[in-house]
Design a protein that fits this description.
Two copies of one chain form a homodimer.
Chain A (H helix, E strand, L loop, with lengths): L8 H12 L8 H19 L4 H4 L10 H14 L1 H11 L13 H4 L5 H21 L4 H4 L2 E4 L3 E4 H25 L13 H4 L4
Antiparallel strand pairs in A: 1-2
Helix pairs in contact in A: 2-7, 2-9, 4-5, 4-7, 5-9
């Protein structure tokens, strides 16, 4: 804590305002791991055993289905998050991250069932979080810099926060894809349902 | 199936197009019950045991926290969905639905823990779905009309589809509220995360 003198009231207020800001959390590794650990169970609860038309439902065009999304998360476990963390720890910003293939799941998931994908995701995530815990990252580690091929300099803490927010982004997407299947079935209620109207209000 | 003659190719295609439209599902009662039954476990997986600042996180202004949202779902179980279904079955469109209090949870949840709210929601939902199954609704029942105080005529099927989509709307909202807590923590990645940028693309 930076206490630069008595009566540094502005500083105190600054700290208080931060602590009371319910729209933002600072990155805390243990909290992020807690959220990352939940995602397999969340997707399992939402999806396992749903009839096929719901699993392959999408939002039109080349948008993704729940099946595609779980495959995408698996590919991230294999090639994106933890590998990039290791690149930062081993090479700093001297070596840019490998590019991530956002469409890899369209090949890799072929012929699989949703159930096998959910199992695979849960097992990869468990293993990756064990490995992440074993790294015993310090606050100084979280400040270490890597280089994103497009975004430029990023820190390890930002990478791990992004891993977490990316999970929640896709949980949100799965719920939206499913809910929008009833865009017609809800009749006049469509005006009230933000999931269908697209309003964020 | 309406097969009005040999070689009615347009009709066949029409049917095929419907069956292959991955952006819409018709309302099927057993499917809706299957989805409604999942929501308590989904919210449990997402939320139970999260540190308090995540439970009371919100998106600014008078937006809702995960704690508020679970309270809102409880109030819906008590006063909205099944009571309205019974109003339709007993009174048709002769009696408009009771208005739903969207802010009731701000009183009702006071002093409760998230854990107790999750338990209460799961128990109410289980009981309501048992009662819904016991009604043994027929396709003709699903076409029966009720009267919404603002939207006017609606069918029982539309009400039950809305119950389902409303669940998914709030699952989406919970994931979004949580993910946006890292709007700053993700650093430059915020441009790529639709959950933070608000893009639906």
């Amino acid at each position: 804590m930076d206490c630069s003198g008595d009566g540094d009231f502005a500083n105190d207020r600054g700290t208080m305002t931060d602590a009371n800001d319910r729209t933002r959390r600072p990155f805390v590794l243990a909290e992020a791991i807690g959220i990352l650990a939940r995602t397999p169970a969340t997707l399992d609860a939402l999806l396992r055993g749903l009839p096929d038309p719901w699993i392959t439902a999408h939002e039109g065009g080349d948008t993704w289905s729940p099946f595609d999304i779980v495959g995408h998360l698996i590919h991230g476990e294999r090639t994106d998050w933890l590998p990039r963390a290791k690149t930062i720890l081993e090479h700093g910003d001297a070596r840019p991250f490998e590019r991530f293939d956002r469409l890899a799941q369209f090949g890799a998931s072929t012929g699989q069932t949703l159930e096998s994908l959910l199992d695979e995701f849960a097992s990869l995530r468990r293993r990756n979080l064990e490995e992440l815990r074993a790294l015993e990252l310090t606050p100084a580690d979280l400040e270490r810099r890597g280089r994103h091929p497009e975004l430029g300099p990023v820190t390890l803490g930002q990478l791990l926060a992004t891993w977490t927010a990316h999970d929640l982004d896709h949980v949100m997407q799965v719920a939206r894809v499913l809910g929008r299947q009833y865009s017609d079935a809800v009749g006049p209620w469509r005006a009230y349902l933000r999931i269908i109207s697209g309003s964020q209000g």
